[in-house]
Amino acid sequence: MSSIDKKHNKNTATVTPYGDTTDSKKGQVTTMFDRIAPHYDNLNLILSLGIDRYWRKKAIQLIALQNPKTILDIATGTADLAIEAAKVIRPDQIIGVDISANMISIGSDKIAAKGMDNIITLELGDSEQLRFETDTFDTVMAAFGVRNFENLRLGLKEMNRVLKPGGQIMVLEFSKPRIFPLKQLFNLYFKYILPVIGKIRSKDQNAYKYLYESVQVFPDYENFNAILVECGFIEAKFKDLTAGICTIYTAKKP
């Protein structure tokens, strides 16, 4: 492992929402999402100016090319990615897993309101210790969730394990723009403006301060592809969106 990868591996585990050393990153992330769950969807819409919907659509379009029948949505949150997949792909089954009970509750209500209960089910679960048998799903996907894993490689290896041979992983995640002046504007917005809006709307400034910090240490682009290969995937590719603010990663299980 290179010194860069070691740095990323260390930092993605130690950057936490509340900086409380008495609780694990996983525990703090659970607390954070339980706290902001009632405001999560509206804040996403406001903070991303609605672009997050476009990102999810592009990610699902890539998955649809494989025509998966069984899909696992890791860190499903309020189920926006699962709902988009159900509309576009129309698989036989989607299971969404998340560690936040409040996010699951809100997501389940959205699914019921859309009449998708027969396709999508949500459940509490730890992405690093999945309950599913090996070689179960055609596709495993995650939107803005793997950045929050306590152990990134362990979570990715679990995603690999439950995939069928030839199955596809798709990860949609924030990345750091590389071009001037977007890189500077991105840092200004995420570091200074976003936490203030988050505090006003959700009463939890730390959650959106953590968002900036976790994006900064996340191993994006080629670094993430290298980790996917290290975790047993092949044909790792990435496609950046909106000049690199967000990136879609795909890979397959041999």
Topology diagram in text:
Blueprint: H1 3-14, H2 25-36, H3 40-48, H4 51-64, E1 70-74, H5 80-88, E2 93-98, H6 101-113, E3 120-124, E4 137-143, H7 152-162, E5 163-174, H8 182-202, H9 205-217, H10 222-230, E6 234-241, E7 246-252
Parallel strand pairs: 1-2, 1-4, 2-3, 4-5
Antiparallel strand pairs: 5-7, 6-7
Helix pairs in contact: 4-5, 8-9
Short description, anyone?
The protein is an alpha/beta fold. The protein has ten helices and seven strands. It is globular.
Helix content range: 40-55%
Distance between the termini: 22 Å
Write the element-wise H/E pattern from the N-terminal end onward.
Answer: HHHHEHEHEEHEHHHEE
Strand arrangement, major sheet: 3-2-1-4-5-7-6
Determine Rg (CA atoms, Å).
17 Å
Quaternary organisation:
single chain
What's the number of helices?
10
Got a strand count? 7
So, the CATH homologous superfamily?
A: Vaccinia Virus protein VP39
Indicate the CATH architecture.
3-Layer(aba) Sandwich
Q: Could you say which structural class the secondary elements and strand pairing correspond to?
A: alpha/beta
Q: Roughly what is the average pLDDT, rounded to an integer?
A: 90
Return the CATH class.
Alpha Beta
CATH topology (level 3) name:
Rossmann fold
Beta-strand residue fraction: 15-25%
Please tell me what the overall shape is.
globular
Low-confidence stretches: 1-11
Described by strand count, sense and barrel closure, the largest sheet is: 7 strands, mixed
How many structural domains in the coordinates? Answer: 1
